[in-house]
């Protein structure tokens, strides 16, 4: 090599190093993650309940951090927040509910037989001998050539659903096998879908028959917090939700079917059949007379923006939720605050770190919005309120990246993917992971439908392609201890701390794996931020059709 060429080589590699250094100057730092969580999960913040004493401090802290980083306000009217008016409803005792079976009244006891509530802001609910319709799994899925409803009219009636989707418990030889993603739960399997479908069809009430395995959790979880519901305030012209919604205990359901001369287990199998059609149960009606207290709560989402240089109207969104569970029953040490340190102060710390490193690096062509939602734990409400009234049009939001719980057990050889096969962002995640010498592993319990249980889902329903990193989606293959150690970490966290007082900041957390996970989003956002690419839902995804409605608005901009 000539001396001159050698010099050129040195100059060139220095230039490359400088450029790379410029773009990647800042790294996600474990120390930063820890310090942010330490503040948000401190006693001062009182468990960050929406509308509670911790909200004001939380909002002030988040706004202060975004401001200090030099980001612009991304909320309503040039401010840092978006108002999220919430409604809390509570059924009062005694709640009178009953099936009438062959003219004989069979009372239904809240928590024991039924776990029911309302999201309608009305003081009293009276249902008088409404007919009861069995709708099977209650799926209306034209893209899967499936319709459980046929010609049935649900107006003024009670719809009884099976939980999960039609192929969940089907054998491999049944016609339904694979029609709903096999073990993977589709949105048709979620109780939220079933309540919404009942509402769209004018039903008075929607009851989902509880089963441990198909629901993914036991009756004690399904019936906890009885009669209490949170919801967003709906626009005046929005469709009314179903009046009463909830779970029916499996035993109560079996009695109901027996009263109508049917066997519940047999009907459950028949509902796997593609020819199944909803039908009214003979000799059976449902009545209820319930008083409801309605409370209004004002809460807020926090939003900041890093404006893009050449395509500022094209949005990449990074998000988490700031809320946790506030105060609860005292634990063995007398602690009442449930600080939500991991869930989701740590995800929020990740979003703040993304803001810091993206701001520190070379400016991007597209804008990045950082959204920290309220009321996730009350039913994804802050993100739902945003999706119902988005500040940045959903059709120009290229992707949402959500952090909700990160593992604190150290570096891992893989990252867990929630929602395999949903969108081509899976490829982005694989490429980003490969840069770190890691691989992508699909979640190990797709039947639990985690894909529908975090805030990214609110955006997905609006058509926005999404990626979620959720530390409890499956055990990571940890560098120290492998998959067994990753599974043990989840078992310990879910068993003892999840939503409890012990989800507290810990100086001994090993956040190296969490920082690498956040770095994956950094790397993907950086790539997409300078790209004209719009990530797509895969064929067969429940969310593809809604995105396609606005395809023209994106193509015209390419
Ligand atoms: Zn969470």
For this entry, give a set of tags.
globular; alpha/beta; binds zinc ion; two-stranded antiparallel sheet; 558 residues; 15-stranded mixed beta sheet; 19 strands; disordered N terminus
Give a description of the structure.
A hairpin with a 2-residue loop joins strand 3 and strand 4. The strands form 3 sheets. The chain has a 15-stranded mixed sheet that branches. Helix 2 packs across helix 9 (341-360). By secondary structure, it is α/β, with parallel strands linked by helices. It has 16 helices and 19 strands. It binds zinc ion.
Shape: globular
Heteromolecules bound: zinc ion
Question: Can you summarize the main beta sheet?
Answer: 15 strands, mixed
Q: What is the helix fraction of residues, given as a range?
A: 25-40%
Q: Based on DSSP secondary structure assignment, what is the total number of beta strands?
A: 19
Low-confidence stretches: 1-5, 7-24
N- to C-terminal separation?
45 Å
Put simply, the count of helices is 16
- Alpha carbon gyration radius: 25 Å
**Class based on secondary structure composition and strand pairing:** alpha/beta
Q: Averaged pLDDT, please?
A: 92
Strand content: 15-25%
């Amino acid at each position: 090599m000539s001396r001159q060429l050698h010099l050129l080589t040195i100059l060139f590699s220095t230039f490359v190093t400088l450029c790379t250094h410029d773009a990647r100057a800042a790294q996600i730092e474990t120390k930063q993650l820890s310090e942010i969580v330490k503040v948000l999960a401190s006693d001062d913040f009182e468990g960050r309940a929406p509308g509670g004493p911790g909200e004001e401090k939380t909002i002030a802290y988040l706004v202060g951090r975004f401001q200090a980083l030099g980001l612009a306000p991304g909320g309503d009217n040039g401010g840092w927040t978006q108002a999220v008016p919430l409604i809390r409803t509570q059924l009062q005792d005694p709640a009178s509910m009953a099936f009438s079976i062959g003219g004989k009244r069979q009372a239904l006891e809240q928590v024991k037989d039924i776990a029911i509530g309302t999201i309608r802001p009305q003081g009293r609910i009276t249902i008088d001998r409404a007919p009861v319709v069995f709708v099977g799994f209650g799926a209306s899925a034209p893209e899967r050539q499936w319709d459980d409803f046929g010609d049935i009219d649900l107006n003024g009636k009670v719809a009884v659903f099976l939980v999960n989707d039609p192929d969940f418990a089907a054998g491999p030889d049944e016609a339904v096998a694979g029609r709903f993603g096999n073990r993977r739960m589709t949105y048709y399997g979620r109780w939220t879908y079933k309540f919404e479908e009942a509402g769209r069809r004018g039903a008075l009430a929607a009851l989902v028959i509880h089963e441990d395995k198909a629901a993914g959790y036991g009756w004690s979880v399904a019936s906890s917090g009885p009669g209490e519901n949170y919801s967003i305030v709906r626009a005046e012209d929005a469709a009314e939700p179903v009046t009463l919604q909830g779970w029916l205990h499996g035993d109560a359901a079996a009695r109901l079917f027996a009263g109508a001369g049917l066997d519940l287990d047999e009907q459950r199998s028949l509902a796997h059949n593609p020819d199944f059609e909803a039908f009214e149960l003979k000799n059976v009606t449902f009545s209820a007379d319930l008083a409801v207290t309605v409370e209004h709560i004002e809460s807020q989402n926090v939003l900041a923006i890093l404006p893009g240089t050449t395509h500022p109207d094209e949005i990449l969104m990074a998000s988490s939720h700031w809320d946790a569970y506030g105060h609860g029953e005292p634990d063995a040490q007398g602690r009442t605050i449930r600080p939500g340190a991991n869930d989701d102060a740590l995800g929020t710390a990740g979003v703040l770190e993304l803001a810091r490193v993206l701001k520190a690096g070379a400016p991007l062509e597209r804008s990045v919005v950082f959204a920290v939602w309220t009321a996730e734990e009350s039913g994804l409400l802050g993100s739902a309120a945003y999706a119902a009234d988005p500040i940045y049009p959903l059709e120009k939001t290229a992707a949402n990246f959500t952090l909700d719980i990160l593992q604190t057990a150290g570096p891992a050889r893989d990252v867990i993917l929630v929602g395999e096969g949903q969108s081509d962002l899976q490829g982005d995640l694989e490429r980003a992971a490969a840069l770190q010498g890691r691989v992508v592993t699909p979640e190990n319990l797709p039947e639990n439908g985690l894909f529908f249980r975090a805030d990214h889902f609110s955006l997905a329903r609006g058509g926005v392609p999404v990626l979620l990193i959720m530390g409890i989606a499956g055990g990571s293959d940890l560098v120290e201890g492998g998959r067994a150690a990753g599974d043990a970490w989840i078992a310990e966290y879910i068993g003892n701390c999840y939503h409890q007082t012990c989800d507290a900041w810990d100086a001994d957390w090993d956040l190296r794996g969490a920082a690498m996970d956040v770095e994956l989003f950094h790397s993907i956002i950086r790539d997409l931020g300078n790209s004209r690419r719009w990530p797509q839902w895969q064929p067969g995804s429940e969310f593809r059709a809604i995105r396609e409605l606005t395809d023209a608005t994106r193509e015209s901009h390419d």
